[in-house]
Amino acid sequence: MKIIAGLGNPGPKYDKTKHNTGFMTMDHYLNEKGLSLDKDKFEGHWTKQKINGEDVILLEPQTFMNESGRSISQVANFFKVDPADLLIIQDDMDMPIGKIRIRANGKSGGHNGIKSIIRDLGTEKFNRLKIGIRHPKNATVVSWVLTPFNDEQQKLMDDAFDTSVKIIDDFIAGHDSQYLMNKYN
């Protein structure tokens, strides 16, 4: 079994903001596959599906970004999913807008959602799909991550979302992080 979790903040106020890149990626994947998050439990919206013969849980934690680990650890513990079978989709300010990078494990890089997941899972050994949102040039970090993409930036993000669908499918198909890094980084 695999868990794919997109990170973001719940509620319409945050819908299209940069910090919700994980939710936007998950929504794009669900749209492409004709799926929806039809369950509310574990402090998240989720669904369990059979995709290419693999049991997969698709999750959007509803705990706010800084407490994402609560929801993810509840799901992982309930379904007894090893952290190596998790793929966390997150925004990354240290990369240009729309750039994608896969990581197999590691520190949080200052991302509060990832800090929360590391704390609640008790390990750094889970996969991440990082999508760049760029560091702000003339704005505070908080005001930057809580604003939407402009039209030019959104085109780059749409390309990243399309590529993310392929990455998620490859992860579900059982390709390890080294394969994914070689193919997509």
What would the keywords be for this entry?
185 residues; 22% strand; 7 strands; 6 helices; Rossmann fold; alpha/beta; globular; cytoplasm; tRNA binding; single chain; RNA-binding
What does this structure look like?
One of its GO terms (biological process) is rescue of stalled ribosome. InterPro entries: Pept_tRNA_hydro, Pept_tRNA_hydro_CS, Pept_tRNA_hydro_sf. It catalyses: an N-acyl-L-alpha-aminoacyl-tRNA + H2O = an N-acyl-L-amino acid + a tRNA + H(+). A hairpin with a 2-residue loop joins β3 and β4. The relative contact order is 0.19. This protein is α/β, with parallel strands linked by helices. The mean pLDDT is 96. The longest helix is centred in the last third of the chain and has 22 residues. It has a 7-stranded mixed sheet with strand order 2-3-4-1-5-7-6, sandwiched between helices. The protein has one domain: 3-Layer(aba) Sandwich (Rossmann fold), CATH 3.40.50. Helix content is 38%, strand content 22%.
**Architecture (CATH level 2) name:** 3-Layer(aba) Sandwich
Series of H and E elements: EHEEEHEEHEHHH
- Which percent range fits the helix content? 25-40%
| CATH class (first level) name | Alpha Beta
Low-confidence stretches: none
What is the average per-residue confidence, as pLDDT, rounded to a whole number? Answer: 96
CATH topology: Rossmann fold
Task: Return the domain count.
Answer: 1
How would you write the strand order of the largest sheet?
Answer: 2-3-4-1-5-7-6
Proportion of strand residues: 15-25%
> What overall geometry do the principal axes of the alpha carbons give?
globular
Kindly report how far apart the N and C termini lie. Answer: 25 Å
Largest sheet: 7 strands, mixed
Number of strands: 7
Derived structural class: alpha/beta
Name of the CATH superfamily: Peptidyl-tRNA hydrolase
Rg (CA only): 15 Å
Tally the helices.
Answer: 6
Keywords: Cytoplasm, Hydrolase, RNA-binding, tRNA-binding
Protein name: Peptidyl-tRNA hydrolase
Pfam family, one: Pept_tRNA_hydro
GO biological process, one term: rescue of stalled ribosome
